[in-house]
Design a protein that fits this description.
This protein is α/β, with parallel strands linked by helices and 322 residues long. The protein is built from 9 helices and 15 strands. Helix 2 crosses helix 3 and helix 2 packs across helix 8.
Length: 322
């Protein structure tokens, strides 16, 4: 089968298309023929070495497709079932091994491409606004990179919970997408100081929460946007990791809270995984949550997908299609 492999840490150029033997499912696993693989920033962190993982690496963790073989002890999945997943290493491949406990059965009306486009980022947006900081009716929140994959979904979910969204974007096209997703205010951070604009929009009060997936270039400003006892939810680092800082800054800013969550810790059990996925997929099938697929690439063009993602040339979700 064809797969993407990384032999050394580096830029998108280290992604190579190779021929490898198909895996076989062990106990508690299913083998899935991949219809679509999701491209996520975590893939770029692993490829570049920001996240240290053993090499050689077959990147990708998310996708959807059809079960073609079932391992010993698996009783609730069968050959022919359509499933999605968010935590199966080596998902940039024509066939992927998925732990049955982490496989998400897809309901009627959700295609493989749609599942691969919404699951990881949709589950991320779900835990961010329902658990990490549960948005309440009337809360005003800041969503950075609101036209990205998580940003568009998070904006919609905050609106579903009765919140008000201030979005940051870098282009007029992205501003239009953020507004279409429900953003109440949109800030072009390349033109104005987003901290000053947030203070103006909140009458100087600041915000109860900032959702920041950008990292290094927005971190200081995100802290400055918070009101006393506000929460900075740092869930990614698309601009690079945040340098070490003195925790005393949290006190000086008003007894602030800082958290660095990850999806794995918010889907620790199968019950929690399926509960969050059930909410997300129900919102999709009912039309309450819209999913934007911003780019489809042949599997062999994984390098181009990474280049486009990191250059911020994309909006919504990027997919690789084996």
């Amino acid at each position: 089968m064809r797969a993407i492999r990384v032999q050394r840490y580096g830029g998108p150029e280290v992604l190579e298309s190779v021929e490898v033997d198909p895996p076989r499912p062990g106990p508690g696993q299913v083998l899935v023929r991949t219809a679509a693989s999701g491209v996520n920033y975590v893939d770029t962190y692993q490829r570049s070495g920001i996240y240290q993982v053993p090499l050689p690496l077959m990147p990708g963790v998310e996708g959807a497709g059809t079960v073609v073989e079932v391992g010993e002890g698996v009783t609730d999945l069968r050959v022919g079932d359509h499933v999605g997943w968010v935590a199966a290493p080596g998902s940039y491949a024509e066939q992927v091994l998925v732990e049955a406990e982490r496989a998400i059965p897809l309901p009627a009306g959700v295609s493989d491409e749609l599942a691969a486009a919404v699951l990881l980022q949709g589950l991320t947006a779900h835990y961010l606004c329902t658990s990490t900081y549960p948005v309440r009716e009337g809360d005003t929140v800041l969503v950075h990179a609101a036209a990205g994959g998580v940003g568009l979904l998070l904006t919609q979910m905050v609106k579903l919970r009765g919140g008000r969204v201030i979005a940051t974007v870098s282009t007029d096209e992205k501003a239009a997408l953020a507004r279409d997703a429900g953003a109440d205010e949109v800030i072009r951070y390349d033109r104005v100081d987003f901290v000053a604009e947030v203070r103006r929009l909140t009458g100087g009060e600041g915000l109860p929460v900032v959702y920041d997936g950008v990292g290094r270039t927005t971190f200081d400003g995100s802290l400055a946007c918070l009101r006393p006892r506000g929460v900075l939810v740092l869930y990614g680092a698309s601009s690079g990791p945040v340098p070490p800082f003195d925790p005393q800054r949290l006190n000086q800013g008003g007894s602030l809270f800082l958290t660095r969550p990850s999806l794995g810790h918010y889907t620790l059990t199968r019950e929690e995984l399926l509960g969050r996925a059930g909410d997300v997929l129900q919102w999709v099938t009912s039309g309450r949550l819209r999913v934007r697929i911003g780019g489809r690439y042949p599997l062999a063009e994984a390098r181009r997908a990474h280049e486009d993602l990191q250059a911020r040339r994309t909006t919504g979700k990027l997919l690789l299609l084996p």
